[in-house]
Design brief:
The chain is 32% helix and 13% strand. It is built from five helices and five strands; from the N terminus they run ββαβββαααα. It is globular. It binds FE2/S2 (inorganic) cluster (2 copies). One FE2/S2 (inorganic) cluster (FES) binds next to loops.
């Protein structure tokens, strides 16, 4: 089957395989991380047609024909995406294991709602967990990326 990942088409074996495994093992896209493995932590988040999904909780066959964006696909022409830049500048991570998931979920949030309130940010990001407790800096980075 063909998967469309970060704007490129990839021939991969999708049958009965988890999307996270295909991304990491076949395409060497290591930004999406395995945390819980059961759809509870958001470390494996990718965008599917612009919406955040846990790639540990999707079969690769389910996303055939859809546009998948991983953290590796966000920067353009060597420049970080504004959300990545805001996370970097605000130090919105410690170990950074959760960061690709938080960044991608934030990108989806700001596409849907360019000026979210603090509560709307917390609600939208509630499926992403940070074991290091960087939540205050993450909130600040999201607000800065939103231009508020
Ligand atoms: S590893 Fe996928 S949600 Fe936790
Ligand atoms: S920065 Fe370590 S889990 Fe979030």
């Amino acid at each position: 089957m063909i998967l469309n990942v970060n704007g490129s088409r990839h021939e991969v074996r999708t049958e009965a395989r988890i999307l996270l495994d295909v991304l990491r093992e076949d395409l060497n896209l290591l930004g999406a991380k395995e945390g819980c493995g059961v759809g509870m932590c958001g470390a494996c988040t990718v965008l599917v047609d612009g919406k955040p999904f846990s790639s540990c909780h999707l079969f690769a066959e389910q996303v055939v024909g859809k546009e998948i964006i991983t953290i590796e696909g966000l920067s353009k022409d060597g420049k970080l995406h504004p959300v990545q830049q805001a996370f970097l500048e605000q130090g919105a991570f410690q170990c950074a294991y959760c960061t690709p998931g938080f960044v991608l979920t934030t990108v989806a949030l700001l596409n849907e709602n360019p000026s979210p309130s603090d509560d709307e940010i917390r609600e939208y990001l509630s499926g992403n967990l940070c074991r290091c407790g960087s939540y205050q800096n993450i909130l600040r980075a999201v607000k800065i990326a939103a231009g508020s």
